[in-house]
Amino acid sequence: MQPRPSPAGANPQAPASPTPDWQAYAERALREDRASEDATTGLVEGSRDRQMVARFRGENRFVLAGLPMVEAVFQTLRPGSAVAGLVGEGEVVGVGEVLADVRSSAAAILAGERVALNFLQRLSGIASITRRAVEAVAGSQAVITDTRKTTPGLRDLEKYAVRVGGGVNHRASLADAILWKDNHWRLLGSVSELAQALERAPAELPVCVEVENDDQLDAAVAAGVTWVLADNRHPEVVRRWVSRCGPGVTIEASGGITPETAAEYAAAGAQRISIGALTYAPDPVTISLELAD
Q1: Looking at the annotation, which residues are catalytic?
Q2: Distance between CA 231 and CA 238 in Å, rounded?
Q3: Are 201 and 190 found together in one domain?
Q4: In total, how many domains does the chain have?
Q5: Which residue spans within the chain are E strands per DSSP?
Q6: Are 104 and 226 in a shared domain?
Q7: What does DSSP assign to residue 17?
Q8: 273 and 172 both lie in a single domain
Q9: Closest CA to 241 of 257, 256, 225
Q10: pLDDT by residue (tens digit) across 61-72?
């Protein structure tokens, strides 16, 4: 296989996940919550016509992500609802700060409250932990990237939040890139068969090969691979492999890395650092909704 120029130069990557279909996600979540059948708010006479303002307030400090979902939720429940973002996507919300106002009927606000909060809190948590990791490697050549360890059915949303936090997206699906991993190695008779297998890779797809030892690394480089994944390796191993490969090969570090340890891998020369915890274990974010006349 001939070396492939990557679409992102020194930091090869598959195409980013598409912008989420906010409306489709909102409709599905509202159906799940049976929002149009709110048995409690329906007890209050006039709630469908009474116009009120709801204020979304941050209870801790975090990076905001997900405001388009708030608008989609309330527009679905009550066309003409007005959502005013007071903090922009990707900006930091301070403790006690109002991040958005919604003007709509009392019934629509209470019917959409939990759905809107669930999305806001989840996506803001992802953006916040991503921002911490990005800031930890600031000044280095490393970028922070996500993985496919996402909530089933919510991948586009969660990868969007990673981008809001300053990270980049890894492949969004199995079809977006060749990612040769440990179990693929086990399908081969020997490491020397890697080059033959990769010759069948579609020319338009980026190719990344996970390596566990020097023999696999050498086989990957000999096959023309320019993007190597060092999974669950100590930073010193990454440092040695960066030196062994030279400047023509991008080394991506992954496996149990956190925002607190990302800087060690950046200092070791990793150009990409993938962190599964961005999407499967984001920090808690607390947001409240208050009604006002």
Answers
A1: 114, 149, 181, 210, 231
A2: 9
A3: yes
A4: 2
A5: 51-58, 62-63, 82-85, 92-93, 98-105, 143-145, 178-180, 207-211, 227-231, 250-254, 272-274, 287-292
A6: no
A7: P
A8: yes
A9: 225
A10: 999 999 999 999
